[in-house]
Design goal:
By secondary structure, the chain is of the alpha/beta class. The chain contains 6 helices and 11 strands. It folds into 3 domains: about 60 residues, no CATH class; about 50 residues, no CATH class; about 100 residues, Metalloproteases ("zincins"), catalytic domain (Zincin-like, 2-Layer Sandwich), CATH 3.30.2010. Helices cover about 35% and strands about 25% of the residues. It starts with a strand and ends with a helix. The chain binds zinc ion. The site of zinc ion has 3 residues, from loops. InterPro entries: UTP_pyrophosphatase-like, YgjP-like_metallopeptidase.
Amino acid sequence: MFYVEYGEQQIFFDLEFRERKTVAIEVNPDATVVVKAPLGTSIEAVRAVVEKRSRWIVKNQAYFEQFLPQTPPREYVIGETHLYLGRKYQLKFVVQEKEEVKIIGGHLVVYGREQSSAYIKAALGAWYYKRALKKLDEAYKQVYPLFKSYGIGQPSVKLMRMKNRWGSCTVTDIIRLNPELIKVSMKCIEYVLIHELCHLIEKNHSRRFYELMSVIMPDWQRWKLKLEKSL
Ligand SMILES: [Zn+2]
């Protein structure tokens, strides 16, 4: 992970080199920043572009941050526990040139050159987001076939921060999932997806909706309860 200074704060960003012509900056819904640069671009050149767009980046981060769900604030300090797929992990920091995040035993280990809570927060945010993309897609592939006989379309799944919701389903059949779901168990994630997919068949929370839920996932109430208690 890299960063540039912007006034009092630091803007952390992930850098990916791609076969492309220009440098692109993306601000994810969880306020993490990804920069895509042409192969062979120097770090200095990338930094210069990011610095030039600092104002725009911070503005976009602020926009997304207003949707952040109100989960209890986590401290980005060593020993604090953080959730991943329904399990608690203790935060650990290891000094290392290569920046990465790994789960090792009961620890969530953040690697980096320098231990600062700003860096740890950014590194964890980026890691959680990447894991959310992967695991929520896995869960979707797991539950979608359960709806085979109902003749539903194949809605696309997008991640979006939502204040008090885990998921939503639009009339154009886009299922939106809260990336914070990466902190609850796979079963709870499946429950949210099944709930949203059921809405493609039954729009409202009618009796028929819950009957359908029970056909697809007989123990859905268990996972709903668990989800409500989890964060
Ligand atoms: Zn619903």
